[in-house]
Amino acid sequence: GEEHYNCISALHKSMRGSDENASLYWLARMLEGGEDPLYVARRLVRFASEDIGLADPLALTQAVAAYQGCHFIGMPECEVILAQCVVYFARAPKSIEVYRAYGNVKECLRTHTGPLPPVPLHLRNAPTRLMKNLGYGKGYKYNPMYKEPVEQDYLPEELKGKDFFKERDT
Asked: Which intervals hold domain MgsA AAA+ ATPase C-terminal (predicted)?
């Protein structure tokens, strides 16, 4: 019932608040209460990107490994795998930079009026001669071929200069 959601919320908020002690408590309360360890592991995968993000890019690897470990061996042996992951997450630095930026992109798409802007010609795939003749891919600079980063626009013209990482959430 409702306590299922209350406990997962408490676990998330404890990890988010970097309280490893409380995080372990809520994890154990869930597992000892019969919660599916794969449910917890799935939520940890989400937490890795939503709350830790690029502050520790290895968090997502930890979460996926924990999920796989739980899937392979099940309870009760997988409890220590989840405990390790939960403590890792509680101790990890946190960043919601990607989570917010992606939200800003979604908001931009939802509030856009009219047809979405076309993909710039130089970014389009040109697998046929006709597409090449229409200018698809023309002027594209393949970065690995240059010693220095190249200047090139990747957003549609009407979004030029837009920075989803610097926008505020709505």
From this structure: 17-168
